[in-house]
Specification:
Layout (H helix, E strand, L loop, with lengths): L6 E3 L9 E3 L11 H11 L7 E5 L5 H8 L4 E6 L2 H14 L4 E5 L2 H5 L6 E6 L8 H8 L4 E12 L10 E9 L2 E8 L7
């Protein structure tokens, strides 16, 4: 990793004000601090003890923020080897317990044996247009019955998501739309 390539800070919890080293990589777009603050204010009642999945993790700032705030575990999935290694280095340096990093494409990860997660962060590279496909795969056993799902996309773009994902809150910051969904089990029609 190049020194001075960038740093972002964790904004809450036990790792508050800790800095994450951010490698200089094409397409790496850390979630801005104010967006993370808004998201974790929304998630405050459900983070403690949750099992999280940070798909297309990049810097891992979302998952590390969750670990800092008491999530039981976070599975990070990042396809770029340099970004995945920087994430491992940050977790080790911060002594963040409960984080595991898989260096692989999110689609390949979701083709494996499913384990349900309570919180999922879906923030793929914007130019890859992966939202709909990854969301459909998540519905194949990867979500707990009432999972919370964070989706980040370009401003003005609402990805097509499964009908079981009910919009809870959304906002825009700069060129980014960020939204929190709640998965609700579909009730049978009477």
């Amino acid at each position: 990793m190049k020194r001075g390539s960038g740093r972002i800070r964790i904004i809450g919890g036990s790792l508050r004000n800790s800095r994450l080293e951010v490698p200089e990589l094409p397409g790496l777009r850390p979630t801005p601090e104010r967006v993370r603050e808004t998201l974790f204010n929304w998630l405050a009642p459900v983070v403690a003890g949750a099992r999280g999945l940070d798909l297309c993790a990049g810097t891992g700032a979302l998952g590390i923020e969750a670990l800092s705030r008491g999530a039981a575990s976070v599975q990070f999935v990042e396809a770029q080897p340099a970004a995945a290694q920087a994430l491992r280095d940050n977790l080790a340096r911060l002594k963040a317990v409960g984080g595991q990093v898989a260096t692989m494409d999110a689609r390949r990860f979701l083709a494996g044996s499913p384990t349900p997660f309570d919180l999922v962060w879906l923030d793929p590279p914007f130019d890859a247009d992966l939202w709909t496909g990854l969301a459909a795969r998540l519905e194949q056993g990867w979500l707990s019955p009432s999972a919370w799902l964070y989706v980040e996309s370009p401003r003005g773009r609402v990805p097509e998501l499964p009908p079981a994902w009910a919009l809870h809150r959304e906002a825009e910051a700069g060129e980014v739309r960020h939204a929190l969904y709640r998965r609700a089990e579909t009730l049978p029609l009477s």
